Amino acid sequence: MFIESDIDFHLTLAEMSQNPLYALMLRGALGGSISAGLLNQNNHDEHKRSLIFILIF
Which superkingdom, per the lineage (predicted)? Predict the structure, then answer.
């Protein structure tokens, strides 16, 4: 079950990466989550909010 959903997720990412806009959004989201992980916990919620905003729009 987990493997199937994993494959679906990767296929979706591959499809999205074909579209430059989605690829840019995905890169921004990944970069944001990485920088949020590196920053201290005080700024973590702020970055999570901006990530959610990026993913919605």
Answer: Bacteria
